[in-house]
Amino acid sequence: MGASCVTQRQVMAWYDENWNSRVFPFFKRPMLTLETSLSTGKYPWSADDAMDILEDYFSRFSVDRQTFAFHSYWPNEETFIPIIFLRSKKNKWQWLEPKPLTLNMLVESAKAGRWLYD
After folding, report:
1. 28-77, pLDDT tens digit by residue?
2. What angle do CA 41, 39, 30 make, to 5 degrees?
């Protein structure tokens, strides 16, 4: 799919049909808007799911991912320190606030054919 012909409706439909599932079977599917954040907020993706979903996104919409910085949106996911209490105070792990990755960012980048943020 060429970048110039990608529309907001196509990106939103792709996400809604393929990735917007219920959190629990008895809950409603989350309502989507362009401001819906996929890395922060009420229903963020896990880093593992995000990798799969974004791989599909970049491929399906032919978006150049060269400037995409995954760890800006999921900075804490790969951090596991089993003996954190043994580390010095200056080397302790600290929570980093993830940047919001919104559906609008996916839409605008798909239209441009390259990642526009970071």
Report:
1. 888 899 999 999 998 889 999 999 999 999 999 999 999 999 999 999 86
2. 55
Give the predicted TM-score (pTM) of the model: 0.80
CB 36 within 8 A of CB 30: yes
Residues 6+ apart with CB under 8 A from 82: none
Single-letter residue type at 63: V
Q: How many angstroms separate the CA atoms of 102 and 11, rounded?
A: 12
Tokens 């995000």 found at = 50
Map out the domains of the chain as residue ranges. Answer: 3-112
Contacts for 76 with CB less than 8 Å, ≥ 6 apart: 95, 96, 98
CB atoms inside a 10 Å sphere around CB 81: 11
Taking the C-alpha atoms of residue 63 and residue 2, their distance in angstroms, rounded to an integer, is 9
